Fold these 3 entries.
Entry 1:
Amino acid sequence: EKHSFKHFMLKEIHEQPGVVRDCLQAYINSNWDLEFEAKTTDELHPATVDINQSPIELGLPDELLENLEQVQIIACGTSWHASLVGKYLLEQLADLPTTVEYASEARYAPSPLRPHTLIIGVTQSGETADTLAALSMEKQRRLNAPTQFKPRLLGITNRTESSLGQLVPHLINTRAGIEIGVAATKTFTAQVIAFYLLAIDLAWRRQTLSQSRVQELVKGLRKLPSQIELILNTQEAKIEDFSHQFSDTKDFIFLGRGINFPIALEGALKLKEISYIHAEGYPAGEMKHGPIALLDKDVPVVAIAMPGSVYEKVISNAQEAKARDAHLIGVTAKETLEESDVFNNILPVPLVDELLSPILAVIPLQLLAYYIAARRGLDVDQPRNLAKSVTVE
Ligand code: F6R
């Protein structure tokens, strides 16, 4: 049921605050922060949780996660983008070298076997043929290998009863509810949340973060649902109006750096698959190595400029684009508006820890893609040539 929404995609975009809330509630020990805040246990109020335990409860066995040396992630499409955010988190929070492979490539060029590797298959449907085949290959070639190469397989999926569930012994259920729109929105957000939880849990186990940094991240995660709501409540009508000017646009460029580079890729994918406008996502610093030649007044550039380690760099890359007459749209935090008078238009999101910003930055990009496509009168939920799950190679 679409209820009052014109398309399932729009309904699913709006479901994201609830999806994030449910997922956090399911996997974060709800009393941990309170106990951590209090830090003491008195006779009258004995602690209900041990703050020396990880606040994250994914129900994964120690044998899967202990003594890891690296992580290898296999996925396609939007799930591959979520995995790139995951790589950033696993490396920066848990100090685990991580590779992210396209399943369709990994199948035919297996990487050298490395010991103590966690292999993660990410597929919302749990039915993507290439992802299943690549995972099954990894499983097979490790079965008869020496102990340190034994398969350690984990799936991240929205459908635990899927073929993925048969193939791998351990799953993180992203609990987003069934997604009908072909363009993934809420399942992407839920996958990224799963990676936050996994990375924090691994950071805890490997002692790569202080307890107070873990607490800060957990607190930040808990604020995300209301921050997504705020974007939806205050920006949707503006983005709908704003998107009208792109009805005849032929090309779009999306720029991001660091943890928001995958969001640039995702913004471009959403736009191309439902609006059929050619769109490319680039790491902003790569523009000068070729793609900047594409820019002129007819190519809008969306720059994701979230305050943090690469903020000034993105702003300066955006300025380079502006010097080529590009129409510049900034996805940025309100607090930095004055500094960013470089943008022709701003899609504001709340100011958060840079590490958590992808979850907010993707929301205006989903709305932008949706309203541009809807304005063109296209079948947003069933774009041409696409299927919800790709069960053939
Ligand atoms: C894009 C999209 C696809 C899927 C891809 C993988 O919006 O939906 O790119 O992400 O086909 O699908 P799953 O996650 O089911 O393996």
Note: The mean pLDDT is 93.
Entry 2:
Amino acid sequence: MTDTTPGGLENLLSEDRRFPPSSEFAAQANVHRDAYAWADADRPAFWAEQARDLLDWTTPFHEVLDWSGAPVARWFADGRLNAAYNAVDRHVEAGRGDRVALHFEGEGGDTRTITYADLQREVSKAANALAALGVETGDRVAIYLPLIPEAVFTMLACARIGAPHSVVFGGFSAEALYSRIVDAEAKLVVTADGGFRRGAASALKPAVDEALAKGESPVEHVLVVRRTGQDVAWTEGRDVWWSDTVDTASDEHTPVAVDAEHPLFILYTSGTTGKPKGIFHTTGGYLTQAAYTHKAVFDLKAETDVYWCTADIGWITGHTYVVYGPLVNGATQVIYEGTPDTPHRGRWWEIIEKYKVSILYTAPTAIRTCMKWGEEIPSKFDLSSLRVLGSVGEPINPEAWVWYRRVIGGDRTPIVDTWWQTETGAIMISPLPGVTTTKPGSAQVPLPGIAATVVDDDAHPVPDGSGGYLVVTEPWPSMLRGIWGDQERYADTYWSRFKDLYFAGDGAKKDDDGDIWLLGRVDDVMNVSGHRLSTTEIESALVSHPWVAEAAVVGATDETTGQAVVAFVILRGDAGGGEQSADEVQTTLRNHVAKEIGPIAKPRQILVVAELPKTRSGKIMRRLLRDVAEHRQVGDATTLADASVMDLIAQGLSAPG
Ligand code: 6R9
């Protein structure tokens, strides 16, 4: 990563477009430049002030940070609070019960408007039902639901009782669900008959039945929401309908105050190999940073903004920026069940026009997909309500960033490229929209109160202009408190690579201003003839060509060069890319990469594909592409959002031409 020879990282760093905030935006922004100095002067004091300011505590805290048990932090540990009370009840008590909390848009066009007062009743009913099913403070609950209001009600009902939830992606297999249920020893599973995806009802309950038939399980009950009306198999005594238990329960429930360090949730992330890691977060510190970052990074004005984060609740972005951050801040938000192209490719933009969404938070993969579909689609809708755009999940290529700002943001909106992880719980590195002069493709600066840098192999901070590994150098409130049931693995995975530094697993580079550019996971770094190349770098070069909508690059074993660059590209329908022969595409794009980065970075092979394999959170599964590139049997594809994509790629490669 420290290599700056040809093929190094010069391409991204030569990105010299700059976008300062407008003076109008800067003047009205929630957070100003002085926040950095204030936080630097006394980091724990800064967070303590946020915790007092943004949350209501039933028992105020006096201790701020206890790092004596490092690497497990304790924040605000002698305080007590309830997460659901903070997300719901206090807004109603303050006279804001009529404010819309959720504008739910079903894929088929059904809608529900849920105010904070409604939310209080729904969450209370669900909490009473959970308690009646035997769930007590400290018990774990698995949630396997589509993105429907009941998913939010259930998460908050768990929080209300102090029962940590473990949300499992609706797209995950029965096997994945079973291992997560067993690992967390969940007593209850909350699911639905099914959900709507791509215009059809897709079943969920059968996967729960299959999971629970796999062996011994701690599950006592399965609570089932009726969403699609599909037939479901039923196990008497174990399965109960939401309509029979929750809808009939009392809508009054007293939230259980818990210690600040009481676990709020477990969320499994797929490690590169082996058993998934149950990342667990606690209550006080997590909520503090969720609320602060949501307000600071998106400049949220709760009275007037309409916020929309397109993430599924099955990943961390859905936890922090659909459920906890926005609701603790009393925001009005949109949640949408379906896919962006159902029933047509303008669905997202139609939703933005309909609800006058002012803040949009989505992933680079979605932006690149929209680029591929062509800008005439969003251009048909009125997107003038938008005032802040966010990106998360992967490095965003400069071209995609610029397209996002121009086509979706009307050349007007600040873009916040937010770097963080399931483990960090909340945003760590991001521009502040009223402060930072943004650079397309860079997450830029640690937020006020966050200390992160880039180090070399020996843990020394690299000078500006060099690359290395991203680390966090001081504890932060929403940091993971460990891996559920395996604290040794926690220390090994994150704290053993560099002494006393949190190792994020991402490669990064500092530019000449000291701004941080994320370069992808360190395992995505290739070594071609001794030159270190980042996948992100080459992908960005490819996407900067007008024919290319999306690109994924992998390093395939090569007899002569050690590794060789193999690129998979999706061509843009609207830019002439579709009309070229395969040979012409190869030659043109190889030369383009050579020109942008250097001949060393030229892909050995460029394969045109219709889709790329992605997880439901939008991350490209390069491991599977590497299998294709190295002519191996394709490995475990169970966490793909759409498992048929690998078949399509294989077919496309064997087809003539
Ligand atoms: C929130 C989330 C974490 C990994 C992380 C990094 C990548 C996320 C990014 C980004 C570059 C950004 N990542 N945001 N890379 N720029 N703005 O995605 O959590 O699913 O745990 O993934 O995602 O590689 O290490 P999670």
Note: The longest strand covers residues 548-558.
Entry 3:
Amino acid sequence: MDDKARAELMAAIAGWQNQDARHHLHPFTDPALMDQVPPFIIDSAAGMYVGGQGVRLLDAMGGLGCVNIGYGRPDMADIAADTIRTLSYYHCFSAASNPYAAELAARIAALAPGALNHVFFANSGSEANETLLKMIRLYWSRKGQPERRAIISRDYSYHGSTMATTVLNGQQAMIAPFGLSPADMDVHHVMAPFWYRHGGDLNAEQFADQAIAAVAGKIDALGPETVAAVFAEPVQATAGVIIPPDAYLPRLAELCRMHGILLVADEVVCGFGRTGAWFAQETFGFEADMMTLAKGLSSAYAPISAAVVSDAVLDVIKGTEREVFQHGFTTSAHPVMAALALKNIDILAQEDLVKRTRDSIGPYFASKLKELENRPLVGEVRATGLMAGVEIAKNKTTREQYLLDMAVCDKVSQACLMRGVIVRPVGNAIVICPPLIIQRGEVDYIVRAMGEALEEVSGQLD
Ligand code: PMP
């Protein structure tokens, strides 16, 4: 780029930053800060990399853990253009449908575990979970048990940003500003299977016992006849990639079955290969009655999500009397979004991206990242498939944490950025969820950048 071109680019960036600061409200961002810290304008992306403001960054977060097939694929662009030319939109209300939605629903049903065969489309993970909250109400009223309204969720969980899904979240900071109370909405939180934080001296099996006992205790306290459903992310990504002990999820499913409670697997992050299987239910050996999908469903080429229910659940919801499901979105099952999701699934399958995550690149990623446990500040590295959380500790032995307002994780992630790598600080952990196309050399680069960043920040703290 010559001087003139660079000057023009800098002027354009300044213009976008100005427009952005004045008019664009960002998700999960302090609006007051937008005036003071100009946004980083990302204007291009390809493969594992995003570009902006004259630099290219290795995106070890795959956007927000969603760009499973990598960025900027020409075949995805072609599908979008072709579908827009053929059928830019028609709704799916009443008896209308389109070829892409029909095929996508069938493809999801074929890939999904067990009897999860019926798909409702929405636009975001939040909307998919919201859809299930309403379906759960219908399910129990049509089953003649309308008193089953309580929902059990877990600490540290993240299920969405709509009014109802907000109270499912296990992080008070997301709930309190809106004057919401989970208990008022019959949502009840239980301990998460977060061994590093809550496991103390227990081994994995003993800790699974404790975490399951917490759910069982809550069910008993509420009265099993009042409990409608349990929501669970198989791996709690947004909280720093909390991976449950092996026994936990199968036992949770068993507990729910015993009491006739519906189990919802929120596979918004885990679905479509992230854990090395199409769905984490396969990785962790359990089956839910309902699941939600988003992110990897289209690799974020399109805002599309799905709420999937089992044959048995659908049978009840159909009921005996004719009644409309009073729920839906204008762009539910949008043909262009569905076509992009179909092509994304084709790519995941044709390039064997799910299997390589399980068998080769995933184990390599985990073993290289584990080496970071020898670096300063690292309490624990958790990894499954191509998702990892690097837990930051002030004291490795006692697991003491730094105060959050010391922003240690932010500093580490900033130091990674200076080395050209994007990772994501959340609470006391750094999350890494790269596109599934990642190569060994890129894993090495990320681990080296993280190692250097940890040394640098630890040096500043001393
Ligand atoms: N569930 C989980 C497990 C998530 O991680 C997220 C988003 N990070 C959501 C639901 C909400 O999805 P969306 O942001 O698309 O509404």
Note: The radius of gyration is 22 Å.
